[in-house]
């Protein structure tokens, strides 16, 4: 079998993300309503901000706007996580970054499976935020053993999915026909199951230890717990959610609204209460599934990220706010020291930028021989710098989303407990460092424009 018979991994990912979206809209009708609201507000925003439209267009993001989504799942064992790694690799999604959420009282650690190269991100940036339950953080020995025992008895993948994974690895890819079957089989893993695998007493015991433990342990598989469209104006969507009968969480997570958006802002609607049936015919309700939206800004360098973390920590010393307006006001004042113009962000090396030739630069490239200093070329109007979009997640924000959906408030704080080595061992490989990816994108684009201008070949 030759390579050209295989469906590209990017196309398998698109098949997967559109199938997941269709399934989730059927399972959670409010998600469809949220998508409509987001699309409407995106359209209005683009119409009123031509410069934003232009920036998205030049980054190749305009056509992917409606594709832009992430989802999240939670798994219970190392074996489940490592098989998921193999599943996602077939779709061109690789584990990027390590997130420790135990610090925020959520007994999991996580990574995001996502496309890593520029071309794949442009095709479809779909990501899955994937969390592994940390049974070792359950203090009670009996309970920990019981949870492990229940998890050891489930198989979250269909037999056919496992066969196709192995086949893809041996062949080096999947044909279109195999890919369609693979996506259909893998979808079964993320489907909602109304029937719990345990009796109601076990469910309540695990629920009392931590609601998240019950959610991971008591079901046949890791139901997709949300999908997330990308909004260009999260403040407006947050305000308008109640007009379509959606109840948003109290505050928008992440940085404040700024002229130059950074990182990621997120909000969600609170989880649905859904009836589940237990062994022994009893029923109760479970809250697991919700809807979320994200607004993405510029990726920050380690220096920019350290400043973000410092200002965020400072802002969180004040008591938590229950209304978004006050929260945003306090956040804005805490972030007053974070430069908010592209020139400062770039020259102070706080954010990552992509370099392109301007029209004048393209003309110059035909001649070659331009001076080789990037700053000089920018000042001369031959090169322009546009922010690189952040493609990852933020642990404090993620913890806020988890907590708002687990409800109940009473989460215990685990002592700071990051254990990336244990996570990577469960995963079966190291996670990729996000900063390395952004730095490479920036450096490659700089190299390309310099080469085009200085040597006059291959103008881009
Ligand atoms: C994941 C919560 C985190 C995000 O976008 O930061 C998350 C979960 O609830 O499983 O989705
Ligand atoms: Ni999310």
Say what oligomer this is. single chain
Strand arrangement, major sheet: 2-3-4-1-6
According to CATH, the homologous superfamily is Uncharacterised protein PF07063, DUF1338
Radius of gyration: 23 Å
- Number of separate strands: 12
N- to C-terminal distance:
35 Å
Structural class: alpha+beta
| Main sheet makeup | 5 strands, mixed
Annotated CATH architecture: Roll
**Overall geometry:** globular
Number of helices: 19
CATH fold label? 2,3-Dihydroxybiphenyl 1,2-Dioxygenase, domain 1
The unreliable regions are none
Give the percentage of residues in beta strands.
15-25%
CATH level 1 class label: Alpha Beta
Counting structural domains, the number is 1
| Ligands bound, unique | 2-oxoadipic acid, nickel (II) ion
What is the mean predicted local confidence, pLDDT?
91
- Percentage of residues assigned to helices: 40-55%
What can you tell me about this protein's structure?
Keywords: Dioxygenase, Iron, Oxidoreductase. InterPro entries: HGLS, YdcJ_bac-like. It comes from Oceanisphaera marina. By secondary structure, the chain is of the alpha+beta class. The chain has a single domain, classed as Uncharacterised protein PF07063, DUF1338 (2,3-Dihydroxybiphenyl 1,2-Dioxygenase, domain 1). 48% of the residues lie in helices and 15% in strands. The chain contains 19 helices and 12 strands. The protein has helices at 9-27, 29-48, 50-58, 78-90, 118-123, 141-152, 159-171, 176-190, 200-209, 211-217, 234-240, 302-315, 324-334, 342-347, 359-367, 374-379, 395-406, 420-427, 434-455; strands spanning 69-75, 94-100, 108-114, 127-133, 195-199, 226-229, 264-269, 273-279, 283-287, 291-296, 353-357, 383-387. The strands form 4 sheets. The chain has a 5-stranded mixed beta sheet. Strand 8 and strand 9 (283-287) form a beta hairpin. Helix 4 (78-90) crosses helix 18, helix 7 packs across helix 8 and helix 15 packs across helix 19 (434-455). It is globular and about 80 Å long. The mean pLDDT is 91. The structure holds 2-oxoadipic acid and nickel (II) ion (NI).
């Amino acid at each position: 079998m030759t390579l050209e018979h295989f469906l590209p991994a990017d196309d398998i990912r698109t098949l997967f993300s559109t199938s997941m979206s269709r399934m989730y809209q059927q399972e959670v009708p409010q998600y469809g309503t949220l998508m409509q609201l987001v699309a409407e507000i995106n359209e209005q925003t683009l119409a009123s901000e031509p410069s934003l439209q232009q920036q998205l267009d030049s980054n190749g993001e305009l056509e992917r706007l409606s594709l832009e989504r992430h989802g999240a799942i939670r798994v219970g064992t190392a074996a489940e996580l490592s098989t998921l790694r193999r599943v996602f690799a077939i779709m061109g999604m690789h584990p990027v970054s390590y997130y420790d959420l135990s610090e925020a009282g959520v007994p999991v650690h996580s990574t995001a499976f996502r496309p890593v190269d520029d071309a794949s991100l442009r095709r479809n940036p779909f990501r899955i935020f994937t969390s592994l339950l940390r049974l070792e953080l359950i203090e009670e020995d009996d309970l920990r053993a019981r949870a492990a025992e229940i998890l050891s008895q489930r198989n979250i993948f269909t037999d056919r999915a496992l066969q196709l994974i192995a086949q893809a690895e041996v062949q080096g890819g999947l044909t279109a026909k195999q890919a369609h079957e693979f996506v259909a089989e893998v979808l079964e893993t993320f489907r909602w199951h109304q029937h719990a695998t345990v009796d109601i007493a076990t469910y309540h015991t695990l629920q009392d230890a931590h609601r998240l433990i019950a959610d991971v342990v008591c079901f046949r598989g890791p139901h997709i717990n949300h999908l997330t469209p990308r909004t260009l104006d999260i403040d407006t969507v947050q305000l308008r959610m109640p007009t379509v009968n959606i109840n948003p969480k109290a505050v928008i997570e992440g940085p404040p609204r700024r002229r130059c958006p950074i990182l990621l802002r997120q909000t969600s609607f609170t989880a649905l209460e859904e009836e589940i049936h237990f062994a022994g015919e009893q029923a109760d309700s479970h809250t697991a599934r919700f809807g979320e939206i994200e607004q993405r800004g510029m990726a920050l360098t380690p220096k920019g990220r350290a400043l973000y973390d410092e200002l965020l920590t400072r802002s969180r010393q004040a008591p938590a706010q229950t209304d978004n307006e006050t929260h945003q006001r306090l956040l804005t004042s805490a972030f007053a020291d974070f430069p908010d113009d592209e020139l400062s962000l770039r020259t102070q090396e706080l954010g990552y930028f992509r370099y392109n030739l301007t029209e004048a630069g393209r003309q110059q490239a035909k001649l070659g021989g331009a001076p080789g200093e990037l700053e000089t070329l920018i000042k001369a109007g031959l090169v322009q710098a546009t922010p690189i979009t952040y493609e990852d997640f933020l642990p404090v924000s993620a913890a806020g989303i988890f907590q708002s959906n687990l409800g109940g408030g009473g989460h215990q704080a685990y002592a700071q407990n990051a254990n990336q080595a244990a996570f990577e061992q469960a995963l079966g490989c190291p996670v990729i460092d996000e900063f390395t990816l952004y730095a490479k994108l920036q450096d490659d684009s700089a190299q390309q424009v310099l080469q085009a201008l200085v040597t006059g070949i291959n103008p881009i």
